[in-house]
């Protein structure tokens, strides 16, 4: 069974703030409308974005979407690098 785990690779856990951003975007994409701009702003701030309290929610959501996309691309690149280096950390 260990070979299967090694072949599939360990799934890295997402940071909680990134997971919350993904959940927000999935809800919006499924037709949900964020009713509380303060929650959207808090998620954006937790992702490291500077957000004005007067910023339009749509703009903040677009920035969250971009931040989540960047984080996912970085995670994919890190996974590819780990796969290339192997378990010992040396280039294969």
What is the tally of helical segments?
4
Helix coverage percent of residues?
55-70%
Strand segment tally: 0
Shape: elongated
Strand portion: under 5%
Low-confidence stretches: none
Structural domain count: 1
Helix/strand class: mainly alpha
The average pLDDT score comes to: 84
Radius of gyration: 17 Å
Distance between the termini: 23 Å
Describe the structure.
The protein contains four helices and no strands. The protein is mainly alpha-helical and about 90 residues long. The chain has one domain (about 15-85). It is elongated. The two termini are about 25 Å apart. The mean pLDDT is about 85.
Quick gist of this model?
This protein is mainly alpha-helical and 92 residues long. The protein contains 4 helices and no strands.
Features:
92 residues; mainly alpha; 4 helices
List the helices and strands and how they pair.
Elements lengths: L1 H7 L7 H14 L7 H10 L10 H29 L7
